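Predict the 3D structure for this chain.
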Amino acid sequence: MGAAMQRSFNLIGRGEPERIRGALIMVDYLTTLGVKPLFGRGLTLDEDQPGGPAVALIGYGFWQKHFGGNTRVIGEKLNLEGRSYTVIGVMPPGFDLPEAAEIWLPLQTKIDSLPFADRAIPGYEVVAKLRPSVSLKQADAESKSIARQLEQEFPQVRRGWSVKVISLRQELLGDLAGNVRKALFALMAGVVFLLLICCANVANLQLARGITRAREFALRCALGASRWRLVRQLLTESMLLAALGGVGGLLLAHWIVPVLAAMNPIRGISLANFFHNFRIDGRVLSFALLVTLATGVIFGLIPALKSAGEREVMPRLKEGDQRIGAGAPGRRWLNVLIIAEIAVAMTLLVAGGLMLQSFNRLQHVDLGFRPDHLLTLKMVLPVSKYSEHRQRVAFADRLLERAKNLPGIISAGTTTNIPLEREIAYDSVFEVEGRPRPNPNDVPITSHRLVSPDYLKTVGVTLIKGRLIDDRDRANSLPVVVISEELARQAWPGEDPLGKRIKRVRGDQYFPWMTVIGIIKDVKEDLFNYRINRPVWYVPYAQSENNFPLNLVLQTSGDPASATAAVRDVIHAIDPDQPISNVMTMNENLGGVLVTERFGAILMSVLAASGLLLAALGLYGVMAYSVSQRTAEIGLRVALGAQRPHVLKLILGQGLKLTLLGIGIGLTAVWCLTRLLANLLFGVSATDPATIVSISLLFTGVALLACLLPARRALAVDPIQALRTE
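Done. Predicted structure below.
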């Protein structure tokens, strides 16, 4: 068992200052994962002790970028956070746990010797190998039980925190909440459905060909051919068709895989290159071959047995035209297959439509602020240079003063966390003045944000009551706080919070009472729970001693990205050694929040559209075959006086009947899958009437178009020619 804590480090002395993602790790972290350095060595027990030597492991990409792949890197020095570290090893390519790390330093902390308040700091990622007799579910249950005991024993520091045991694969997907896995399972189901539609089309094609060749097979049997030989021939034809389709599918996959990698559904907190490393390797080829063979055999066997299994040979030999062979049993099989095909396609279409609706609702969720024309970037002020909080405040003040004077900048502010950020969020236990101290088992928690004057105005929050933080709120002034609606509801239900006081609680530490000066509309702050409103308070940056990261947010009159270079120059004019990271527009940051939902909605829609097209082609094929087999019947009807609209109605009616039966079965399947679909949806019901009705009408319209061409061919039948041919 080993543990790691994600950290970022300021790197100077190697070109432009950089903020490097890394981790503090225990010596057993890498050995538990079974990862060894590409060259050099790993950490030793002595190096992981408090006060141990300053050593570092570097990632493969970092080694290539900063040392040009020079194998003499061992022993080189790195200036991290103002301290010199010696490189002792280079990690293998592709490894960057936890959370896209590029540098690994020893944790050098004896956790058991720390005060419990410090031991309870969240963010440790523990990796462990389970005994063969212990399941993941059992380990999770036992860990949660321990967490509950600790929460009851130390509520001030453990309240609201728990433990979650997940597989390493789930961690690599960045799927802490299970959303990626659900989306991938849904897409796998969609792929299987699409495969079934394709197979039904192939089976229909083979069955139709078998019916039209009934007289040929009867003649072969009469000449001594065994039925098994005929079945083998038909299976060979089916396998050849499946093989051609498999080759075409692999060629298509070769083009699609890079597109899917570019649509990476994994949020940036996970193993960065995990999804991008998907390749069509031997295992994929073997699986594709197995599926191709299985579908060729399974969906070719029934038509083969049906076509070659006729026991009576003489009636077939006496038939004068192959088209007479389309008896009721043959047509029944064709109809059953096309109905099943339509039902599966309908299920796919409804699922795709619902996921598109859900994604659209997510895109239009009220965030509580205005993300347009906002540029964001992150800085962490090194303690070696900014050891006192007044120095950090002075840096922020100088930066804001200069940034506001840049061309195109409307407003500027700083915060410790931007909304829906991928970094660690800071939470605080709070106490309300005039109320009994919270029950140890029910300690309230709020998200903690330190902001500069004008930050809330810059991001465009909605002020409900009171005022926002401004230049009056300095270090030596009355401690104040702005709270969210949700915090107001929880702390003062049914009361007016303005002028009332609240404070932070953490063990025996002293925190001043803060006066509520304003209430704002809830802002979506939580990356993993962005669908809910969390209680949040906003404290003036000058009135807090915490050395949290500093996020600069700029409101621009034009394209926010165009201000990047000027802002960098301003920062480096104040401090040439200050690294800058996470430079992006607010919309780019928000775009990363919905990557999983966007990926699922787009791919499910593509699968659904493909299913609709294949089902329409299948219906067209069945109707075209039906018309070709009923040429004599249609000619006779016309000869006896049937009007052409009647013939059109006959053909379209047959296709419409099959379509409606398939749609009905498909909707029944959707109803049975509502619980599964509900887990993937937001703001829309799995039985949304508007979606179901619109997709049913769309499918019906496409089906009628698919039947129209065979129907027009039926209208063109010359009764004299049809009867003469017969």
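The mean pLDDT is 81.
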